[in-house]
Amino acid sequence: MSEPVIVMEGLGRDFKVRDGLTRRTVTAVGALDARIDAGEAVGYIGANGAGKSTTIKMLTGILVPTRGSATTCGLRPVPDRRRLAREVGVVFGQRSQLWWDLPVRESFRILAAIHGLGATQETERTDELVERLELEEFLGTPVRQLSLGQRMRAEVAAALLHSPRLVILDEPTIGLDVLSKQRLREFLVAERRTHGTTLVLTTHDMGDVERLCDRVLLVDRGSLVWDGTLTGLSRTVGARRVLVVDLVESTPDLLGIPDTEHLGSEGGGLRQRLAFDAEHTTAAKVLAAVSERVEVLDLAVEEPDVEDVVRRVYASRR
Ligand SMILES: Nc1ncnc2c1ncn2[C@@H]1O[C@H](COP(=O)(O)OP(=O)(O)OP(=O)(O)O)[C@@H](O)[C@H]1O
């Protein structure tokens, strides 16, 4: 059996919050039990407020658990936080870890010094990351002038500069365009293949999970409700895809198309969205049925999104 990189045993966290004049306790994370082995890529998913960020904060020593324990890279996150920082790289999609006014290159130099990298190690690793993440053109640019896509690539490079064996990413592709998302995912796949890095990521984007993760942990109200493959999870609720059609003329809601659910209309019915279950029908069949009623100008098929799967798993449990 390979070495565990993360072990959670009954891990939980409560918060005391003020509610008017009274104080009440919010359980952000109930009691998690899970083990993540070296080299795994795990998607940690759940609805807003399910407890994902709180878990990550406990695993990286930012928050003290109220119950149970966590071991990350064989260390206790809070007391061993400094040693842990050498083993883990953390990327927060919504928070920068770079020096805003400094050129990207300078941030890398400071981080290399903080991590005590030798000169050769620093050059080799920086060159590798600059090439793989295509950072060359903006290495001399202050971070505050970067586009979101450029900044995220720089953030990832900064978090991985010291070649951590565990990389935790909190919403790494949030707000990125399709191309930037794809580049970032390709980089993470390559990094894992080359260095055997363990990846844990929280995301609301099914594409991240599909392309990066071989295991999914789904959390609901602070407890684990699924631990397995994404395909297995999708099968529990039937993974739905969405056909988006742009129509020649304003059309009333396309109800009653076999094996579909009408999700919504925009522009007075010029664009409509129909969910269908890929196990029972195909996009082509749905399109044919729509075309019998109205002329279709353009179409797109959307992947199932995490929110939809999560919502339906939650609904089936309540
Ligand atoms: N510092 C805090 N004080 C009080 N309550 C908190 C605090 N941090 C988190 N919570 C509460 O704990 C619960 C879990 O929050 P958490 O941020 O871990 O969820 P999340 O799954 O990461 O959500 P999101 O997808 O929106 O980032 C929420 O109900 C949140 O309001």
From TrEMBL:
It is found in: Cell membrane. Residues 6-246 form the ABC transporter domain. GO terms for cellular component: plasma membrane. GO terms for molecular function: ATP binding; ATP hydrolysis activity. Gene3D superfamilies: P-loop containing nucleotide triphosphate hydrolases (3.40.50.300). It holds the Pfam family ABC_tran. One of its GO terms (biological process) is response to antibiotic. The keyword ATP-binding applies. It is a peripheral membrane protein. Keywords: Antibiotic resistance, ATP-binding, Nucleotide-binding, Transport. PANTHER family: ABC TRANSPORTER ATP-BINDING PROTEIN, ABC-TRANSPORT PROTEIN, ATP-BINDING COMPONENT. This is ATP-binding cassette domain-containing protein. It comes from Nocardioides luti.
